[in-house]
């Protein structure tokens, strides 16, 4: 009898752990404002305790601090309620949560801006950092899970001549690499080129223990947004730890004011999705080569989304022209079903390269063969 009871208890614990994992996955996708969500399975979502957990973690405005836009909330709630209703086979045993129904009714009565206007607006997006080895690290105040919080235009491709108003796949992928290999930046001085929302810099400053982080971008609008995102992550501009500057690729740095990065040397350069505009690649690589030449022991880690073969080849060839050695780190994207946050497309190829100023004896072969 005792053995049977123990087995039943273990089974109940396993079942509870399963629905908790499903709710956590949904929560992480929801606060990242993903277009497609993995809703809990029918046998799970019809349970009252699961619906209560979904309401308290996603929709209870007395608990949730950073709510997605109302239009997005309404869209998700409609999907949830429809999924719950379809999952219920016995209405005497199961029901749709009153809290979820009340929230949906309130949202349906709320005036909504046009979708075209919503795309232009900035909202708070939360990226869960599943790959980060958080064991043994000091939490930031009382935060239980590692995450990056950003004010961004989640669904805007570009505006005001910049694509830096949202976080792109390559930044998320490079962030996963750095989370798995924190020694790349730990105790070092980091410069991010084309920082955009500042995702990588926030990740480094908040969790990976660099000596100093400098965010840079060529857009005034993007640079002006750095302060807001620092504050959202309980960080602030501090000359001894975090600074940000406007840096236009291709403008010569040697011989310029020594304060171009507030006098900080550079050990590690980061760049993600910086090759989307082929016309900007020569200027990007020129700046990269110049900085690596100024700090000969520095290394760059650049993540490239291989959308255009022409852009990809142009970047590699321009790096070789500047005598930069490239090493493909062979860091693959996890299949979408195995991602736990941040979530990003697994149907595009994103490569992470380590770049150095001097070409080693075998780098030419790597650049012309294995790096492609």
UniProtKB/TrEMBL annotation:
It comes from Ophiocordyceps australis. InterPro entries: Methyltransf_16, SAM-dependent_MTases_sf. This is FAM86 N-terminal domain-containing protein. One of its GO terms (molecular function) is S-adenosylmethionine-dependent methyltransferase activity. It holds the Pfam family Methyltransf_16. GO terms for cellular component: cytoplasm.
């Amino acid at each position: 009898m005792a053995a049977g009871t123990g087995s039943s208890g273990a089974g109940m614990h396993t079942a509870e752990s399963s629905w908790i994992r499903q709710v956590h996955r949904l929560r992480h996708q929801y606060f990242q404002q993903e277009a497609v969500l993995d809703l809990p399975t029918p046998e799970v979502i019809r349970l009252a305790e699961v619906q209560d957990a979904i309401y308290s973690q996603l929709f209870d405005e007395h608990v949730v601090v950073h709510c997605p836009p109302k239009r997005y909330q309404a869209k998700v709630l409609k999907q949830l309620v429809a999924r719950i209703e379809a999952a219920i086979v016995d209405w005497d045993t199961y029901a749709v949560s009153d809290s979820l129904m009340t929230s949906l009714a309130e949202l349906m009565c709320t005036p909504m801006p046009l979708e075209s206007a919503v795309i232009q607006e900035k909202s708070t997006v939360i990226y869960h950092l599943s790959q980060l080895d958080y064991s043994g690290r000091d939490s930031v105040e009382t935060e239980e899970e590692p995450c990056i919080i950003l004010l961004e235009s989640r669904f805007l491709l570009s505006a005001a001549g910049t694509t830096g108003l949202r976080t792109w796949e390559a930044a998320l992928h490079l962030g996963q690499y750095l989370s798995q290999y924190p020694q790349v930046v730990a105790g070092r001085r980091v410069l991010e080129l084309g920082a955009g929302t500042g995702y990588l810099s926030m990740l480094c400053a908040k969790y990976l223990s660099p000596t100093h982080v400098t965010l840079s971008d060529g857009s005034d609008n993007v640079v002006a947004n750095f302060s807001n995102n620092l504050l959202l992550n309980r960080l602030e501009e501090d000359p001894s730890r975090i600074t940000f500057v406007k840096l236009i690729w291709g403008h010569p740095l040697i011989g310029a004011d020594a304060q171009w990065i507030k006098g900080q040397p550079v050990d590690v350069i980061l760049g993600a999705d910086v090759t989307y505009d082929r016309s900007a690649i020569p200027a990007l690589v020129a700046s990269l080569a110049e900085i690596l030449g100024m700090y000969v022991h520095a290394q760059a880690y650049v993540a490239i989304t291989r959308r255009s073969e022409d852009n990809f080849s142009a970047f590699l060839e321009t790096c070789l022209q500047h005598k930069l050695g490239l090493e493909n780190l062979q860091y693959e994207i996890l299949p979408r079903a195995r991602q736990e946050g941040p979530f990003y497309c697994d149907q595009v190829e994103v490569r992470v390269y380590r770049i150095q100023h001097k070409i080693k004896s075998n780098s030419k072969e790597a650049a012309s063969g294995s790096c492609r």
